[in-house]
Prior knowledge:
Helix content is 19%, strand content 30%. It is built from 12 helices and 43 strands.
Amino acid sequence: xxxxxxxxxxxxxxxxxxxxxxxxxxxxxxxxxxxxxxxxxxxxxxxxxxxxxxxxxxxxxxxxxxxxxxxxxxxxxxxxxxxxxxxxxxxxxxxxxxxxxxxxxxxxxxxxxxxxxxxxxxxxxxxxxxxxxxxxxxxxxxxxxxxxxxxxxxxxxxxxxxxxxxxxxxxxxxxxxxxxxxxxxxxxxxxxxxxxxxxxxxxxxxxxxxxxxxxxxxxxxxxxxxxxxxxxxxxxxxxxxxxxxxxxxxxxxxxxxxxxxxxxxxxxxxxxxxxxxxxxxxxxxxxxxxxxxxxxxxxxxxxxxxxxxxxxxxxxxxxxxxxxxxxxxxxxxxxxxxxxxxxxxxxxxxxxxxxxxxxxxxxxxxxxxxxxxxxxxxxxxxxxxxxxxxxxxxxxxxxxxxxxxxxxxxxxxxxxxxxxxxxxxxxxxxxxxxxxxxxxxxxxxxxxxxxxxxxxxxxxxxxxxxxxxxxxxxxxxxxxxxxxxxxxxxxxxxxxxxxxxxxxxxxxxxxxxxxxxxxxxxxxxxxxxxxxxxxxxxxxxxxxxxxxxxxxxxxxxxxxxxxxxxxxxxxxxxxxxxxxxxxxxxxxxxxxxxxxxxxxxxxxxxxxxxxxxxxxxxxxxxxxxxxxxxxxxxxxxxxxxxxxxxxxxxxxxxxxxxxxxxxxxxxxxxxxxxxxxxxxxxxxxxxxxxxxxxxxxxxxxxxxxxxxxxxxxxxxxxxxxxxxxxxxxxxxxxxx
Length: 736
């Protein structure tokens, strides 16, 4: 076309470089909803050479090359990290050129594309909640949020344009238009992408550790806040509880059967038929909802209400929103109507309109004042390209971004209720959605194969910068799961950051027989006892941008074996979880380097090593990593029923370890442990509570000191036959 393009390179932050490529005359927005760090703060050690087109920071050297045209990035040692791809086959609709424009003659659609060398041993991760292989090399990926209706295809509810490379860098494409990636799938030697826009902005995030990349991504797009403590308890749900009597019966059964739970969820049946979603109670099915919510709260239950951001035509809420211009428009300026899951015409709430956001806030505040605790923010993936929003953007730009705006609006209203700690139960997402937790995995089918796909989706989402994630224990749709599938799903589902039973059929454990109920209770009680461990991991995740469910590659990145492991994970830093994903109980799993303690038997294993087992139904393999500091609470039926007193600290430490624990209010408690010659020296700051120590592993413990004070040690034997050491310790210090 003869248009001139410009490539600019900016040292954005330590270890972060921003690239912009587009027409010389292009106006770049100052910020976007995806970013929280909107201005560069590169640090002092930045040098620029206009003669050689080089930029050098404290950790990176970037050079724009003219012949051949492209970009190369090296670390400070000179190691090549990334280089524009300059050779290989051409694909007419997806050029493998270094950096350029494409305009389709048929409709004028513009795309910006780029390609980089793909090294022979390079592995790629991220790009959102993807249900296929965790390593994305060899895949074609489309970034366009979709109501997938399953969890077993390449479509997804939650795209995140963050790509991690095993060479030690990440690429964040700061764009919400449709993106198409070819990751060694068209050309085996190139990583390439095309964005449906007239310019492209991307951030190069240097690690080399993935943990460093995720922290830098969180600094750029926002750290996930820690949700309220009660959200980490069990959520019980189905599609759905259809009246007050049914909901109250479930609450009574949970308490009578001693199955710890904190949240009861109501799917669309809390609304009047045909009114999904006008945010008005159906008081024929749920008479006097204020009284119902108050009585459930007295039993320790919070209630979650379903919603979608589409308002049915014919309702009072639609009439009000239509009159005030609170819905997205068509190209003629009329309210745009789309069919919802019930095939009813609905208006799309326009969250780019500040007045519409305030209107939506108030609708939720009213429900929160009446006793609701949280909302399931379903849907959000259906914005059509032709939609026009109040700020002038169209669906082509806002389709992927709409879930972020939708969940933000609801999260903000809920945060007002819980003293700044917001939470939603969202299905859709995009870059920045980690700021509005929690998201869940969507509408899975009830098969072992799809259960494994859901696990891959959660691990992929965690490697895309999202700490908090859950899914439907038991699967959502299809035939009712048999007891074996239900139990196996529950075992690892109770080791997610958040845990919810949900499905088309009943998902309460007693619906699957006495054995299933007993095993479910065992793992549910284990979750509630480990809540202090999960709570500490949640704060760590928030501060560092790490997922609660950590793929092995995140903790053992220098072990290439972990690049291909997607059927096990670390729950926080200490507990290795091996889900049983095959009928019959067979598992094959990998233990990375170091010492590992079998949680059930106390047997010591060493890695790196592969193992195979036949696992009885009442167990799921769990291993403690050397250094484990696991605070445990007294068993309670719901969060807040009992204080965490006394706290039990379960340890597997053969040399030294440290971690920051959190009390129930979230205040930090730094614990460090050093073991030598049978003596354990523990430092606990600032104020150690009364603590019962349970010491596991090969150490022959004879003495324990806490902040310099000695305490007696007693040998004990667990029911499994494992020998352990116990000590009851407390500090003479007291809070003033």
